[in-house]
Design goal:
The protein is 39% helix and 21% strand. By secondary structure, the chain is of the alpha+beta class. Among the domains are: 132 residues, no CATH class; 85 residues, Alpha-Beta Plaits (2-Layer Sandwich). A four-stranded antiparallel sheet has the order 11-12-10-13, covered by helices on one side. A hairpin with a 3-residue loop joins strand 6 and strand 7. Helix 2 packs across helix 3. The radius of gyration is 34 Å and the shape is flat. About 9% of the residues have low confidence.
């Protein structure tokens, strides 16, 4: 089992991945930056750090390994513990451990673990496809200094001139002023209309983007393969909503296409859940539930089990 491969997968989606008994790998978003010395532009990314104090098992890594390897939760935990023992042995004997696509771990004289993150890959999914690049520095000429140097060598002399009045008509001057004012007004009106048109285009684009994001919205689990069947709660807690006041529904997902929601219901029912079709939400998405409960305590207990063993994206919807 290549444990670092599963850690790398989770770092794309989570900011903290805990390796039980070893430590936690943390990510933090960094903005785009430029190296002034080399003129290198760096895209936004996630910087990876290591904290050896966070060793408690939160179930994320173990569940992912269990789902990927198609083994039980206990076997996955046992395999991880064996791998951690090997990592500690390598650090003790060789003082360094390289985890592919994650970084280099070393121990100092005091026995503390130091971490040097790998330069690749970039775990920020929004920066996918963006790479670092170098730019040629721009050389700007200081024209003011050149003009001052020319003035010192070639002085400019402005001599007054007398305008001769050769039949000049004063009203032409006023006509020219009116024409200039009119042309200025027309130009300003055109600029105003162009700005309004641009604002309308921007609003339309923003509305289309929000609509697309809403249509894409869905809840899903990260399981690459089928999950083990887990019995959550007795179905005797499930009562129709019209017989009691408030019902508590554990939501499994929301789908834009009704056929996908039906397939999700069949999949959950095969695993032993009392899955059902809840209806459509305010965004027109079809909501599917794991189960429904009249008792809030039972619903919360079932939700904790589902989030630990099935999907961390499950959530509770209480509605009368």
């Amino acid at each position: 089992m290549v444990l670092e491969h599963y850690i790398s997968d989770l770092l794309y989606r989570y900011n903290c991945v805990v390796v039980p008994g070893f430590g936690a790998f943390l990510t933090q978003k960094t903005t785009a930056r430029i190296n002034q010395d080399t003129n290198t532009f760096f895209a936004p990314s996630k910087s990876v750090a290591f904290n050896g104090q966070l060793i408690s098992n939160d179930g994320l890594l173990v569940s992912y390994v269990s789902e990927s390897e198609k083994i039980s939760f206990e076997d996955a935990l046992s395999n991880i513990e064996e791998r951690v023992k090997w990592w500690k042995y390598i650090l003790k004997e060789e003082s360094s451990l390289t985890l592919k696509n994650i970084g280099l771990l070393t121990t100092n004289a005091e026995g503390k673990i130091l971490f040097q993150p790998a330069s690749e890959p970039n775990y920020l999914t929004s920066s996918f496809g963006l790479s670092n690049f170098n730019s040629i520095p721009v050389t700007r000429e200081v024209l003011k200094e050149e003009v001052e140097a020319m003035e010192e060598k070639i002085p400019f002399v402005i001599s007054p001139e007398r305008r001769e009045n050769n039949g000049f008509r004063p009203y032409l001057k006023y006509a020219a002023i009116l024409l200039l004012a009119f042309s200025t007004g027309v130009t300003g009106y055109r600029i105003y209309q162009q700005q309004r048109s641009n604002e309308q285009v921007v609003r339309q684009d923003a509305q289309e983007y929000v609509t697309k994001q809403i249509q894409k919205a869905t809840f899903f689990d990260i399981a690459p393969l089928e999950l083990p069947t887990v019995t959550v709660a007795a179905k005797t807690n499930v009562v129709p909503a019209n017989e009691k006041g408030e019902m508590h529904h554990i939501v499994a997902g929301a789908f834009r296409i009704k056929a996908n929601a039906d397939r999700k219901i069949e999949e959950l029912q095969e695993k032993g859940f009392d899955a059902a079709y809840f209806g459509t939400n305010a965004y027109g998405l079809h909501v599917v539930t794991y189960a429904s409960y009249a008792n809030a305590t039972d619903a919360l207990r079932a939700l904790r089990v589902i989030k630990r063993t099935q999907s961390k994206d499950a959530w509770l919807l209480s509605k009368k």
